[in-house]
TrEMBL record, chain A:
Belongs to the UPF0718 family. Keywords: Cell membrane, Membrane, Transmembrane, Transmembrane helix. GO terms for cellular component: plasma membrane. The chain crosses the membrane at residues 23-48, 69-97, 117-149, 195-213, 225-249, 256-274, 286-310. The keyword NADP does not apply. The keyword RNA-binding does not apply. It is found in: Cell membrane. It comes from Campylobacter geochelonis. It is a multi-pass membrane protein. This is Permease. PANTHER family: PERMEASE, PERMEASE RV2963-RELATED.
TrEMBL record, chain B:
Keywords: Disulfide bond, Redox-active center. This is Redox-active disulfide protein 2. The keyword 4Fe-4S does not apply. Residues 1-76 form the Thioredoxin-like fold domain.
């Protein structure tokens, strides 16, 4: 329905035609669709997140059998929000609670990789099957990555004295449903005001790609294993938000970019971020940081190649 | 009254510091606002998500940029 209204607006009222009409139509149609999706998704997720806090997550992970420790760390990584400035306090806070280094890294890999808003956007743009596979793959990568780090016995590579917890934080205040709704609303306004320009920019580029690049053109150059490596490598230097990347890759995929290459590029942009590495470098050795980066890159490349093969 | 803003230096932490200073000015209380960036100091409070607001040694909020009015309300009861 919305598609028809925006078509009518562009082609009949604005009287545009040809490529220009296509670009404007794609831009208006996609901008409103995606921004509306983000508003709803961020609001719902922020509301649900008022029920979770990092302290509770930590208690939960701490008390589990090793396998479940990895599993829960990975799942909590999907559902909890993650700001790169929390990486260090969270990392040390987990170790202080005597959560093993491997499990801590599982959380650290999973949290930025499986962005909950990006997952919800992927469902609406690429469908449930691909999104589910993507999320499952992200969980498995973070679990294996953490397990691998635990096997390498790298505890001494943490350049920080881990003292036991002294005073517990008091976060026990109970919130009413009304308060949670208000918190979610504030969070939503905050997120939208920060990212809307990036999202519109990504959609504008998407609109140009949509109108000017012939279907199959991109496929000719990217339908190989090499494309995944290029995608992952270029992702390291782009510090962006997963939410802004989704509309951009949607347009590329529509023009023939293999889905695995697109998703591995998105994962690389979010997970392999220079600011987070610089933060982590303050507390872990170069060796551990390098191993962390290699494991994550390996996981993402594996995802890209296997998704290209499967889908 | 001693107000501390815990944060490793991201945009959200700075936003909370600015709001806290404005809240102090608004509430007309005598308080100093200190930005704590040293990780050792931050960890003494067992806070896992940044930024956090600490008033007189008690963590009142974490992982959230409180608005000026929210901080004014918290200071009233502190």
């Amino acid at each position: 329905m919305w598609y028809d209204i925006s078509r009518k607006f562009v082609y009949e009222w604005l009287n545009l035609s040809g490529n220009l009409g296509d670009i404007v139509h794609f831009f208006i149609y996609d901008s409103i669709k995606i921004l509306a999706l983000i508003v709803v998704i961020v609001w719902v997720i922020s509301f649900l997140q008022t029920f979770i806090n990092a302290q509770k997550v930590r208690e939960y992970i701490k008390s589990k059998h090793p396998f479940y420790g990895y599993l829960y760390a990975a799942i909590f990584g999907v559902i909890t929000p993650f700001c790169s400035c929390s990486a260090i306090p969270l990392f040390i806070g987990f170790l202080q609670a005597r959560i093993p280094l491997g499990v801590t890294f599982t959380y650290l890999i999973s949290a930025p990789m499986n962005n909950e808003v990006a997952i919800a956007l992927l469902i609406s743009l690429f469908g449930v099957k691909i999104t589910l596979a993507y999320t499952l793959f992200g969980i498995v990568i973070s679990m294996l990555g953490g397990y691998f780090i635990s096997k390498l016995k790298l505890e001494k590579e943490v350049l920080f004295e881990i003292k036991p917890i002294e005073n517990k934080a008091q976060n026990g205040q109970k919130l009413s449903i009304k308060e949670r709704i208000l918190i979610a609303k504030d969070e939503m306004i905050d997120v939208i005001s920060k990212i809307y320009l990036y999202v519109l920019f990504a959609i504008a580029i998407g609109a140009l790609i949509h109108s000017y690049i012939p279907t199959g053109f991109i496929q000719r150059y990217t339908d190989n294993v090499f494309g995944v490596f290029v995608g992952v490598f270029s992702g390291i230097f782009m510090y962006s938000n997963a939410i802004a990347i989704v509309p951009f890759i949607e347009a590329l995929v529509a023009k023939g970019l293999p889905i695995g290459t697109a998703l591995s590029f998105m994962m690389a942009v979010v997970t392999l971020s220079l600011p987070e590495f610089l933060m982590l470098k303050k507390i872990i050795s170069f060796k551990l940081l390098t191993i962390f980066i290699l494991i994550v890159s390996f996981g993402i490349i594996t995802l890209g190649i296997s998704f290209n093969y499967i889908f | 009254m001693k107000i501390e803003i815990l944060g490793t230096g991201c945009a959200k932490c700075k936003a909370l510091e600015i709001n806290a200073k404005e809240a102090v000015a608004k509430s007309a209380k005598f308080a100093q606002v200190i930005k704590v960036e040293d990780i050792n100091e931050i960890l003494k409070y067992d806070v896992l998500s940044m930024p956090a607001l600490v008033v007189n040694g008690t963590v009142l909020s974490s992982g959230k940029v409180l608005s000026v009015d929210e901080i004014v309300n918290l200071l009233k009861n502190a």
